[in-house]
Amino acid sequence: MLSMDLFRNEADKIRADHDKRGIPHDSINQVIRLDEKWRNALKQMEEGRRERNLAARGIADAKKSGDKEESDRIMAQVKDLGDQIAALDDKANSLLEERDSIRMSIPNLLHDAVPVGEDEGGNTQHSLHGVKPEFSFEPRTHNELIEMNKWVDLERAAKIAGSRFFFLKGDLARLELALQSYSVDFLIGRGFTFIQPPVMMNRTAYEGVTDLSDFETVMYGITPDPLYMIATSEHPLTSMYMDEVIEPSMLPIKMVGVSPCFRREVGAHGLSDRGIWRVHQFTKIEQVVITHPDDSWDHHEDLLKNCVDLWDALNLHYEVVNICTGDMGTVAARKYDLEAWLPGAKAFKEIVSCSNCTDYQANRLKMRYRTSEGNAAVHTLNSTAVATSRALVAIMEQNQLEDGRVKVPECLVPLMNGKTHLDPCEW
Length: 427
Hints:
Blueprint: H1 4-9, H2 11-21, H3 26-64, H4 68-105, E1 124-129, H5 142-149, E2 152-153, H6 154-161, E3 167-168, H7 170-188, E4 193-195, E5 200-202, H8 203-209, H9 212-215, E6 221-222, E7 227-229, H10 234-238, E8 245-246, E9 253-262, E10 281-291, H11 296-313, E11 318-322, E12 334-342, E13 347-356, H12 360-365, E14 368-371, E15 374-377, E16 379-387, H13 388-398, E17 406-407, E18 421-422
Parallel strand pairs: 4-9, 8-14
Antiparallel strand pairs: 1-11, 2-3, 5-7, 6-7, 9-10, 10-16, 11-12, 12-13, 13-16, 14-15, 17-18
Helix pairs in contact: 3-4, 7-13
């Protein structure tokens, strides 16, 4: 969430950002009003405590002089002041809770370079990469490829877990492992530390990294325990230092996480109805950086370069897109997407999101770094490296052969024991 200093001293910046997004100022004004009431309640409490302390001093004097009537009067006054202070404390806590509940719903401030647009139609192309594949035959969709090669069993997975789960089999399963290994080694080579996070989080931590009012509908809860299955390793990795003060010498903290991800979301009809493009469980390799605010925009470009270099190494055709104001969401200040060309679908589809969240998550998580003037919020960034199920789709569709087999990207061949093509599974 945004710092209270912004609301108190630079509210016009937040209002200007809302104007870019096309949303009203009502919530901003509510936060400012509630903050004024909260601070006024604190001031009244402090005045009440001073008055009570002064009055309490008179009790001893009255008792010492034997003036019981005065002593009783002062004691009644102290009790009354105590009741008033307790009521003000309850009021202040209620105002603070309401203020911060509204503040958490207010989106991050957008970077000046974010294009203005009402929805995804306002996104702009940042760059284009690779060579668009040409075929001497009509290219198949990944759904057709996995069915004819028996690489995925959706029906039996649905039998035991429901729709949008899958068994991954044979050479395609081997390729999925190769993608994980290659991506992790690639990022370790760029100074990232490999971490396998827990796959469950409590609500407090989750409220620190995302807008639960929007995101909770796609998450799996654990009953009766108050936990959620993670939707991406970004979430546990980013909240790893929740409620901590980080020594500046530790920054930047650069992590590459690998985890299963769980989402209840369902996509639009068509591509997402079958296959492995939009599913309830998938594996993702994620980049997370916790850094000094002065360095975060350089790290954002570094994260994008890591993605570009990684996907270039896979020799795939894709574009990088600048996400516009109307497609941005609550948490990020700026976001790039990578979209791979899918010949079967004849469209670019999202495979990577790369975001700088500035201090938005850190404020919610109370995650700070030490400075000579006091503690200040760090900046947090995240980027997909590879969501393996979507990467498999892009590889299958772009590298397919007329007989239905698929060429293995050259960089993954050593991790496939020299295998250059994916062969059909026998059953």
